[in-house]
């Protein structure tokens, strides 16, 4: 999210879902309650009931769920790493609330004020101070400040996105951090660790941060890359091809993405890098250096188990869940699709108002259509120059997981969507 969203523009503050029932009215103040905490609604609020419903489902901790199985595999890999003295290196945190402050999600991680990822169109805000975390990296600084050197964070993350078989507004991430003092870093690598430094007066370059001694950067980098390559091998087998691609994240430098070759295509599986020293300095770990990474679990699980559609992770259908009932998370599982019922496509066209955001419409469709909506696609944009009006045509693909979707049923939902779009998003139906 931190590299690819530069094209989005800022748009006006607005709360189109204020009237929703999950928000309660206390006196004149509206609040949203999440996990027992109330948050005042303000012009930044854009969480929808369909999203709030997902909070607390914790697929990453549900026994036998594929997201939990893959998390266990990765966790086992990290548990098997020991210090020289035989202590396990990593602790795991999987129960942090997904409600975080904007400070945790952005400021602590040096995300600039005007960075596009802060846009309302991209993230779910409870109000102008709290949001649903857009990445597990949001907890990184808190754990470092608490004195931890090596840890994993697993959790659900929330991003406003298009709707299709590989995008869903809630998914799961696993982040990892490892910090080193001079001893940890050099002891296992060289015979005279005392001759080496973590810090010196090296200038900033594409290869290192200002103040990081070259030998320290290279050693951190080597530990990071070899750890993650080993992890990829554990997940996908020893024949897996990998490649490192230079990347940018505000919280690391240098930064990379790891790609794996999967069915003849390069697939990006994680982002990582050397933690910005400024973050460590602010968190009481200024005498250390370290690496961090973060990755999405759905994407890995889809490849590993051959799961064709991201919505299946939310399915309660036993035909899906039963295929993952294995006590050993390292078992080889290939998902076998069960009978798929035919889709039903309905097109909806409307004139859009000036401040229209596509993601508002996608959220609305998902709120009303739920999991029956397989895909929403903008199939036509038409501008009537004379009247300075633009029209969008969306194709909504419905598919019921358990039975044939009747056209009348799809029509009825589309009608509701059309009605809400015109009252809440100010579109004019064509
Ligand atoms: N948080 C990033 C994302 O969601 C992934 C990431 C990149 C996490 C680099 C990290 C990191 O901890 O060091 O796109």
UniProtKB/TrEMBL annotation:
The UniProt entry's sequence similarity note says: Belongs to the class-II aminoacyl-tRNA synthetase family.
Under SUPFAM superfamilies, the record lists:
Anticodon-binding domain of PheRS, Class II aaRS and biotin synthetases
Where it sits in the cell: the answer is: Mitochondrion matrix
Q: What is its EC number?
A: 6.1.1.20
- Domain called FDX-ACB: residue spans: 339-430
Q: Name one GO cellular component term.
A: mitochondrial matrix
- Superkingdom of this protein's organism: Eukaryota
**A single GO BP annotation from the record?**
phenylalanyl-tRNA aminoacylation
Q: What does this protein do?
A: Is responsible for the charging of tRNA(Phe) with phenylalanine in mitochondrial translation. To a lesser extent, also catalyzes direct attachment of m-Tyr (an oxidized version of Phe) to tRNA(Phe), thereby opening the way for delivery of the misacylated tRNA to the ribosome and incorporation of ROS-damaged amino acid into proteins.
Gene Ontology MF term list: ATP binding; phenylalanine-tRNA ligase activity; tRNA binding
What SMART domains does its record include?
Answer: FDX-ACB (SM00896)
Catalysis performed (reactions): tRNA(Phe) + L-phenylalanine + ATP = L-phenylalanyl-tRNA(Phe) + AMP + diphosphate + H(+)
**What does the subunit section of this Swiss-Prot or TrEMBL entry state?**
Monomer.
Top enzyme class, one word, equals: ligase
- Is Aminoacyl-tRNA synthetase included in the keywords of this UniProt record? yes
Task: List the source organism.
Answer: Dreissena polymorpha
Query: What keywords appear on the UniProt entry?
Result: Acetylation, Aminoacyl-tRNA synthetase, ATP-binding, Ligase, Mitochondrion, Nucleotide-binding, Protein biosynthesis, Transit peptide
Q: Where is the Aminoacyl-transfer RNA synthetases class-II family profile domain?
A: 70-329
Has UniProt tagged this entry with the keyword Mitochondrion?
yes
Would you tell me the protein name for this molecule? Phenylalanine--tRNA ligase, mitochondrial
Read off the InterPro entries from this record. aa-tRNA-synth_II, aa-tRNA-synth_II/BPL/LPL, Fdx_antiC-bd, Fdx_antiC-bd_sf, Phenylalanyl-tRNA_Synthase
């Amino acid at each position: 999210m931190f590299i690819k969203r530069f094209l989005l523009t800022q748009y006006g503050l607005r709360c189109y879902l204020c009237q929703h029932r999950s928000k309660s009215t206390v006196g004149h103040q509206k609040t949203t309650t999440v996990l027992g905490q109330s948050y005042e609604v303000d012009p930044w609020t854009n969480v929808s009931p369909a999203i709030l419903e997902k909070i607390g489902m914790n697929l990453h901790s549900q026994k036998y769920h594929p997201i939990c199985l893959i998390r266990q595999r990765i966790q086992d890999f990290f548990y098997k790493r020991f210090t020289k003295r035989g202590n396990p290196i990593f602790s795991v945190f999987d129960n942090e609330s997904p409600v975080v402050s904007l400070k945790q999600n952005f400021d602590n991680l040096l995300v600039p004020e005007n960075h596009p990822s802060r846009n309302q169109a991209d993230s779910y805000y409870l109000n102008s101070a709290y949001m649903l975390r857009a990445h597990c990296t949001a907890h990184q600084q808190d754990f470092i400040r608490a004195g931890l050197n090596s840890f994993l964070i697993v959790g659900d993350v929330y991003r406003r996105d298009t709707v299709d078989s590989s995008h869903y507004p809630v998914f799961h991430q696993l982040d990892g951090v490892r910090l080193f003092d001079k001893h940890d870093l050099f002891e296992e690598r060289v015979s005279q660790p005392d001759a080496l430094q973590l810090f010196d007066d090296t200038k900033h370059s594409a290869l290192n941060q200002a103040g990081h001694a070259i030998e320290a950067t290279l050693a951190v980098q080597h530990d990071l890359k070899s750890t993650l390559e080993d992890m990829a091998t554990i997940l996908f087998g020893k024949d897996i091809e990998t490649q490192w691609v230079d990347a940018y994240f505000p919280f690391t430098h240098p930064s990379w993405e790891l790609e794996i070759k999967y069915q003849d295509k390069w697939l990006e599986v994680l982002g990582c890098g050397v933690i910005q020293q400024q973050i460590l300095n602010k968190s009481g770990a200024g005498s250390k250096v370290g690496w961090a990474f973060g990755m999405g679990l759905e994407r890995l699980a889809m490849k590993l188990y051959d799961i064709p559609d991201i919505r299946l992770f939310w399915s309660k259908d036993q035909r899906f869940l039963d295929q993952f009932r294995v006590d050993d998370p390292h078992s080889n599982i290939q998902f076998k699709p069960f009978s798929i019922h035919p889709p039903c496509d309905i097109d909806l066209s409307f004139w859009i108002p000036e401040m229209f955001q596509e993601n508002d419409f996608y959220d609305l469709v998902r709120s009303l259509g739920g999991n029956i909506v397989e895909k929403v696609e903008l199939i036509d944009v038409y501008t009537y120059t004379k009247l300075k009006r633009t029209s969008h045509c969306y194709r909504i693909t419905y598919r019921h997981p358990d039975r044939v979707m009747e056209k009348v049923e799809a029509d009825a939902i589309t009608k509701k969507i059309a009605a809400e779009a015109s009252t809440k998003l100010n579109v004019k139906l064509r």
